[in-house]
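so my prof wants the structure for this chain in the C-alpha cells format not the other one, which i didnt know existed until like an hour ago. anyway here's the sequence
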Amino acid sequence: MNPDDLVELPEFQIPDNQNILENTLVKEDLSILENKKKALEEEIRALEEKKQEQIIQTTEIISQILKDGLSELEIRRQKLELSIGQLEKRREKIKDEMRSTFAGASQDLAIRVQGFKDYLVGSLQDLAAAAEKLELTPKTLEVPIVKKTREENSDTSLSQKGFIEHSRTIKSLIEQYRTNPDYYGPPWQLRRTFEPIHAERVHKWFFNQSGRGTIRATGSRLQNILVASAIIAIAHTIYGEKSKALILVSYPERLGEWRRGLQDCLGISRNDFGPDRGIVLFEAPEPLIQKAERLIDDGQMPIVILDETEEQVNVGLLQFPLWLAFAMDPQQQNSNFNY
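here's what i got, hopefully its the right format
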C-alpha cells in the first residue's frame, strides 16, 4: 500500500488534567468571591439599614429634647408671666394704698387729726381757765398772759395774712416742684422729685392749717424730710434770710439723717447749719423755745419742725406763728419706721 493513499485521521487529544484542575479552582474561587461579594453586600445593606435606624433614633431623640426644652421654656414663660401679673397687681395695690392712705382720703385719719387738734385746743383753754382761777397777784399774773396772748394772736394773724398775700407764689412753687423739678437749682430750693401726696400735705399745711399744725408721717423719714424741705424752701422764698428752720429731734443718730436729708433736698452745705445759720437742730425743746423767742424778738421768722418720734409735745412750742409736727400713724410701730 502506498503510503500516500493513507487517509489522515484527525488527531485525538487527551484532556489536560492540569487545565481541568485550574478551571475547577478558578470556578471555585469565583464562587467564593461571589459568596463574599453577596455577604459584603448583605453586610453593607445591613449597615445602611442600621445607619438609617440610628439616624431616625437620633432625630427622634433630638426632637424629644427640643420638645422637652420648648415645653420647659413655655412653663418658665408662663411662670414669669404669672409673676409679672402678680407684681403688676401688687404695684397697683400699693398705688391704691398710697392714694387712699397717704393722700388724705382716709376718713379715719381726718377724725384722728381733728381729735388731736380739738384735744390741744381744749387743753389750752382749760389751762387758761385754770390760770385765771388762781388766787395770785393780778400784776404778776395778768400782764404776762395778756401780753403773750396778744403776741400769739398778732403772729398768727400775720402768718395767715402773709400766706393769703403769697398764695399765688406758694401754689406756683408747689406746682413747679411737682411737675417741673429742678435738680440743679439754686440752694434753698427743692431739688428732688415731689409727688402729689407730698404736694397735698404742703398745700394743706399752708392754707388749711395756716402754717400751724400736724402732718401725718409718710412712713419714711426721707419722705418726711422732703415735705419739710418743700415748706422750708417756700418760706425761704417768702421771708428770705429772715426764715429760720428750728428742728427738734430727740435721738442723736437721727440728727445726722435730718442734716443729710436737708442738704440733699435743698442743695445746701454743712455751713448752713448752726445757731446763726438758716437751720438749727435741737435735741431738747427748751433750748429750741429760747432760740425761737430770741429770733422773734430780732424780727426773724422761725419755723419749728418736730420729728415724728416726738411723742410728747411741749406746750411752749405751740406759741410760735409757724410750727409743724409729723404725727406717726398709731398702727405703725417705731421699730418699723425706715429711713
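also thought this was worth mentioning. Strands lie at 212-216, 243-248, 279-282, 301-306, 323-327.
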